[in-house]
Design brief:
heterodimer; A: 312 residues; 12% strand; B: 276 residues; alpha/beta; TIM Barrel; four-stranded parallel sheet; 10 helices
Chain lengths: 312, 276
């Protein structure tokens, strides 16, 4: 416990990017100096050029900041599209992204399946398997893993995704970018646990970070997940603060620091400047206990309102 | 203007007892981990009340550009049933006032100290007299003083109201401990008493579930700091980060909206839903 690697995907700042307040380099400085992270998770919406000279500039900055790249998430590179022209353009984008990933040393590459129906047809599945196999061979040359994310189209259907993984079983660097809870059907947590064995990387949205029930994250970790736990925020507004909170809560759960101290630890600290304080506290506690006993209760009444998780 | 955020060093008392933080490293965390400009100093975080130590504290606050929003001063509660104990607490209060002046502290919390359910005439007049005396001293260095609704009869709204009505000093106020009430509707009590608030303590749950209630309190015109107070006894540094970040998220949101009006075409062509 505590060795879990944490990152923030640049998509989390797409709102700032859309209004012109954050570019790729701004994202890198934010994760390095605001959030003190050393792992980047780059969404290609922030990439303005796939030319070698631009890729080299990015690589140089990653080195200057001592950042590694856990994932390159590639949009408009999805393997299947019903429109053959889009399919061809996407293939070019996929190859550009793989080349970029190689240049910047990305550990994983996410390229979406692209099938928008709930299930694969045989011909689409064949095509998708063929292309993923080709892409995985290219990624294997520099030790990267590559695969889809369960976040749109048939990738959100557990059975379709299973079918794809079964067909890709012979390709060792084919993996899943596990989008927690990103499922069309079935129990979301159970699906996460079922597919975590394929996970090469993980995305956690606001609701998954904003959860006082820590058990699900512990279950995923105990299932053997050893990739990066990456924050993703979808709101498009107030992103610096939303991400900060998501990160803080994930760190609280995954990287806790448990220590034990004496029941009177706080009072003993006050005692240093106020002699007799510990004794005073003991008298106070005894008096409170006596009072509660006379009221017939062992604890003070809890009359606080029960709050619900705000959905923003 | 952004709402002022702080955290109480009391929230790290167990970490301090375990030897992994002290007041100086708490300042470092406030500034560089939590990105705060304010800190609340709980008296138990002070190793000494001697001038030399307090000057070192002041120097370290200044270096980091930190201001002390509140001094949570334990052991200086105004009332004690035992007169000799009362006198000791009075002397402690005077020492704390000296410390507060040296550190330029904005507000001080001295507890009432009455543990019964209601004031007696004797302890009420004594408490009013002492708070008045302390307020006059604190006014010289522009500091506000008052109790916190977190222990004894300060948690009884009617008793607290009586006290707030009786102390006529302009720098007398309340450290509002959100939902720290024995009786009545906690949120309604908060909304009533925030008019007297010189400072606010927000516990883990109140921060974690921050939403409409905190926004409603903020909209009353309250100008004091919002301070994260953690009562967990372990994993405190992480818990406080959660508290501070969620208060900042709710109280100081940025105004832009860069959300998709049309989803990325790779997701669903022509989709006009602002979501996946």
């Amino acid at each position: 416990m505590g060795n879990e690697k944490i990152s923030v995907m640049s998509y989390s700042f797409h709102g700032l990017h859309n209004v012109g307040a954050m570019d790729l380099y701004g994202y890198l400085y934010t994760i390095k100096y605001r959030y003190c992270l050393n792992i980047a998770d780059i969404w290609n919406g922030f990439i303005t050029s796939y030319e070698d000279i631009e890729n080299q500039k990015l690589k140089d900055m990653l080195e200057e900041l001592d950042l590694t790249v856990a994932a390159l998430c590639c949009d408009q590179a999805h393997v299947w599209d019903d429109d053959p022209a889009v399919r061809a353009a996407n293939e070019k984008m996929a190859l550009d992204c793989i080349r970029l990933a190689k240049r910047i040393g990305a550990n994983t590459i996410r390229i979406d399946v692209g099938v928008r129906d709930e299930k694969f047809s045989e011909d689409k599945l064949d095509y998708v398997v063929k292309k993923y196999t080709e892409y995985c061979e290219l990624a294997a040359e520099f030790g990267a893993k590559l695969g889809p994310e369960n976040h749109w189209g048939c990738s959100r259907d557990p059975e379709s995704l299973q079918l794809l993984f079964d067909r890709m079983a012979g390709v060792p660097n084919f993996g899943l970018q596990l989008h927690l809870g990103g499922w069309h059907s079935g129990d979301p947590d159970m699906n996460d646990l079922r597919f975590v064995k394929y996970a090469m990387h993980m995305h956690m949205d606001f609701q998954h970070c904003y959860n006082l029930n820590d058990k699900h994250l512990y279950d995923l970790r105990d299932a053997g997940y050893s990739g990066v736990w990456s924050i993703e925020s979808h709101f498009g507004k107030n992103e610096f603060e939303n991400v900060a909170f998501q990160l803080a809560n994930v760190k609280r759960i995954l990287k806790p620091n448990f220590y034990q101290t004496d029941q009177f630890a706080a009072a003993q600290l006050v005692e240093r400047t106020v002699p007799g304080f510990v004794e005073g506290i003991k008298v106070y506690i005894a008096k409170m206990m006596e009072k509660m006993a006379s009221n017939g209760s062992s604890q003070p009444a809890d009359n606080k309102p029960k709050r619900v998780l705000p959905n923003d | 203007m952004n709402k002022r955020l702080s955290f109480s060093t009391y929230g790290m008392c167990n970490a301090q007892a375990a030897g992994i933080v002290n007041l100086f490293s708490m300042m470092e965390l406030a500034k560089f981990r939590y990105h705060l400009d304010y800190i609340d100093i709980w008296s138990g975080s002070l190793e000494s009340l001697e001038d030399e130590y307090i000057e070192l504290v002041a120097d370290n606050l200044k270096e980091r550009g930190l201001k002390v929003a509140n001094f949570c001063a334990d052991g200086a509660q105004v009332w004690a049933d035992d007169p000799s104990r009362r006198e000791i607490q009075h002397k402690t209060a005077l020492k704390y006032l000296h410390v507060a002046e040296k550190l330029g502290i904005e507000t001080i919390r001295f507890d009432i100290g009455v543990m019964d359910e209601a004031f007696s005439e004797e302890n009420f007049s004594y408490v009013v007299e002492k708070y008045t005396e302390y307020c006059k001293i604190a006014a010289k260095f522009k500091c506000k003083i008052g109790p916190e609704n977190h222990t004894g009869l300060s948690r009884a709204p009617a008793q607290l109201q009586r006290l707030l009505d009786a102390v006529k000093e302009p720098n007398f106020g309340l450290l509002l401990h959100l939902n720290g009430w024995y009786t009545g509707d906690p949120d309604q009590n908060d909304l009533h008493f925030i008019q007297y608030a010189i400072h606010a303590h927000v516990d883990f749950d109140q921060c974690f579930y921050a939403g409409d209630h905190i926004r409603a309190l903020a909209e009353t015109g309250y100008k004091g700091a919002w301070s994260a107070e953690c009562h967990h006894t372990t994993n405190q540094l992480n818990a406080i980060e959660v508290q501070v970040t969620n208060m900042r998220r709710v109280l100081n949101p940025m105004g832009y909206d860069g959300g998709w009006k049309i989803a990325p075409p790779s997701v669903v062509p022509g989709n006009n839903l602002d979501q996946f």
